[in-house]
Each structure stands twice: as structure tokens, then as C-alpha cells.
Amino acid sequence: MRYLSQVKPISYLKANAAEVLKRLAEQRQPMLITQNGEAKAVLQDVASFEETQETMALLKILALGNQDVADGKLKPVAEVVARLRAKRPTA
To answer: If I label 4, which of 51, 71, 75, 76 is the partner at 20 to 30 A Cα–Cα?
Structure first.
């Protein structure tokens, strides 16, 4: 795991919350929080979280596109271009 240096017990989080938030924002690496020796939560700065969510959304779109290809839901490019040109307002 690449975040092993970022593993902290919940007592550390309680005692150093402001410092933890500052470190998360500066280093942009998640922190694993443990309770009774077990991993319980991952803390992440907001910017990294938003980037992760955007990446997941793009991956989902790609997966849906790949599924459409696998299901044979394809149209020839010429047909798509012709439909788009037909919908374009004339000047």
C-alpha cells in the first residue's frame, strides 16, 4: 500500500485535527484512520476527492460506451454526421 506512512490512529486525529487537515491539503495524499488497530476510514482533501469523483464519472462513461460496443449498439460515422448536419440550422 502506498499510503503506509499516512496511517494514524483515531486518537491522533482527535488530538491534531487542524494539523491533519492542513497536511491533507498540502500533501494531497489520503490518510488512513485506524480504531483499535483496524482500518476504519480514509480522509482526503476536497480537491482530491472532487478529482476522484470526476475520474470515476469518466470511467463509468467509458465502461458504458464499451458495453454499447460489446452489445453491437453502433452506428456508421457517415450516418451520424449526416444526422448532425441535417439538424444544424442553416445560416
So the answer is: 51
